[in-house]
Each structure stands twice: as C-alpha cells, then as structure tokens.
Amino acid sequence: MSKTILAVDDSPSVRQMVRLTLVGAGYTVVEAVDGQDALEKATAQRFDAILTDQNMPRLDGLGFIRKFRTLPEGKGVPIVFLSTESQDTLKAQAKEAGAIGWMIKPFDQAQLLAVVKKVAGA
Amino acid sequence: MTRCADRPSASQISITHVTQGSCVASASPNEVYATILGSCICTCMCDPVAGVGGMNHFLLPSSEVEDAQHLRYGSHAMELLINALLKLGAARQRIEAKIFGGAMMTPQLGAIGQANAAFARRYLRDEGILCTAQSLGGNRARRIRFWPKTGRVQQMFLGSEDVVPTEQPQLRLQGGAGDVTFFDRHSNAEMPDPIKEPR
C-alpha cells in the first residue's frame, strides 16, 4: 500500500509540482490549499508525512503545526516545511512548533523525493 | 502648472534597475522599478488597496512549455514576488499582474521568448491572479518602468539602434536553494545534496 503525503501550499503550481514528483514515485498525494484546509484534512485522515509552505492565507504553516500538534491526530506525523524563507529564526520557530525539517525552495525532484523517502519511507 | 500634491517630485524619485533573476517590492511612492526586456519576462504585481507592488525579471532556459524547469524556476520567481508583496501587507486575492517581454530577439534563442510568455500567462491563470495588462511577443526589446505603489506601468519599445543587454538563459537562485535542515533524529545520510545540521 502506497504512502500518503499531504501537500500544503496556497500555490496550485507548487502543489502540482509536488504531486507530479511524488505520484510518479508511487506515493499518494492529498492537497490542501492553506493551513486551515490542512488541519481539517489531517484530522480526518492519517498521513505518512506532511509537506507545508509557511506563507499562506487563513492559517500559515507555523499556525497549522502548532494547532495540529495539540490534537491526538497530530502526534507522530512527520512534518517538513517547504519554503522560500530561510531565516534561522523561522527555522527555530518551526522546530519549536514540531516540524522535523526545513527545505528551501526551489528544489529538484531528486531532493524532494529523498526527503519524503527519509521521513515517510518508500 | 500645478503638480499633484501626493506625487513625488523628480528629485525624490529613486529608480532601481531590476536585472534578470531579481525580485523587488516596495510600498514607497518614491520608488520606480525599471528594466529592459528582450526574451525575458517581467511581472509587475500590485495590490492597489494596500498600495504595494513589486517586479520580477526572469528568463527560463527552455522553449518547452511543459519542461519541469519552468515549473521549478518560473514558479519560484513568481512565488518570491508574491511573498514579498504579502510581507508588505498585500492580500493574495487582491493582487493584480501585468506581464511584459517574451520577444524573439535572435534566431539563436529560438522560441524561448514565446515559451516564457506562455509560462507567465499560464501561471497567472492557474494561480487565479488577475492579469490586467500584457504586452508579450514580437521581435523588439522593451523598456519598462513600474511604479509599485500605484501599479502604473510605462512601456517603450526600443529601436534597433538601442543597446539591449545580451540575454543568456540563466537561473539565479538565492543561497541555500534546495538545502534541507533536519532538526532532530533524522540523520543526513542518503541525501543527494549537502544537508545542514540544526543550529
């Protein structure tokens, strides 16, 4: 059974890029358009990993993780940031909120696949 | 002759030249962004309510519209601009765009300008960003001036006697692009690129 990844980004183009990369490698991808959408989907279904952007309307990436980690469904699901941001302060906040990693955009398919394979398994 | 009270005088204007691979944004009424385009694309985005705007300038290296590079680097150039506007107080749903460039300047560059223009149009459509003006294609270079505070754009076609910077497709990335930082128990083994340890 294939691993299921939640891709959270307000940009349809970025979600498309993530989906094309991961589906091509055998993963199932569910998309969320912002942190609020992600919170609803991640509490309704268990994911093997979550990839989230930071800057999004309604609820940003950090807000999503902070809320999600307080819920029973939020325990143990690896979450990695995919962001154009690279400030150490943001990374520190992400770590504090419960993210396990931070990947700076843009990335190529091999880099993304390696990260997903590492955190979710093949 | 009277001058509009809220319009800055010529001495107050700061003109920034936006080169290929750059992305700039401002809420200042004194700021003007300028660039010269051949095959390149520049996107001028503005939130007219917040009074903020910005410009990017890119040239994607392939004439294949479906090339993965277009998605990767073109989307990145656009996302950097959108994020810069959001940080200045723009609301994503209010952002409007004007796109320019994509000319066929030399046979050596083939249909790259056309593919770049197609990418820009498609990106805005996919992202639901209103495109309020566009001037794309042709075979003449363009000089663009953009007032980010108001979204006003001035375009001038250049003649063959004007000197247009040579354009070579190149992808300039900010430092750290593609880098991964794992915070805790995940080791850095088996990763294709250098991984940063947590600070």
UniProtKB/TrEMBL annotation, chain A:
Modified residue annotations for 4-aspartylphosphate: D53
Keyword Endoplasmic reticulum attributed: no
Keyword Phosphoprotein: yes
Domain annotation Response regulatory: ranges: 4-120
Superkingdom, taxonomy of origin: Bacteria
InterPro entries cross-referenced by the UniProt entry: Bact_response_regulator, CheY-like_superfamily, Sig_transdc_resp-reg_receiver
Record's keyword terms, sorted: Phosphoprotein
Protein name per the record: Two-component system chemotaxis response regulator CheY
SUPFAM superfamilies registered for this protein in UniProt: CheY-like
One Pfam family linked to the record: Response_reg
Organism: Cereibacter johrii
From TrEMBL, chain B:
Superkingdom to which the source organism belongs: Bacteria
Reactions this protein catalyses: L-glutaminyl-[protein] + H2O = L-glutamyl-[protein] + NH4(+)
CDD domains: CheD
InterPro entries: CheD-like_sf, Chemorcpt_Glu_NH3ase_CheD, Cytotoxic_necrot_fac-like_cat
KW Hydrolase (keyword) present: yes
Its job: Probably deamidates glutamine residues to glutamate on methyl-accepting chemotaxis receptors (MCPs), playing an important role in chemotaxis.
Family statement: Belongs to the CheD family.
Name of the protein in question: Probable chemoreceptor glutamine deamidase CheD
Name of the gene encoding the protein in the UniProt record: cheD
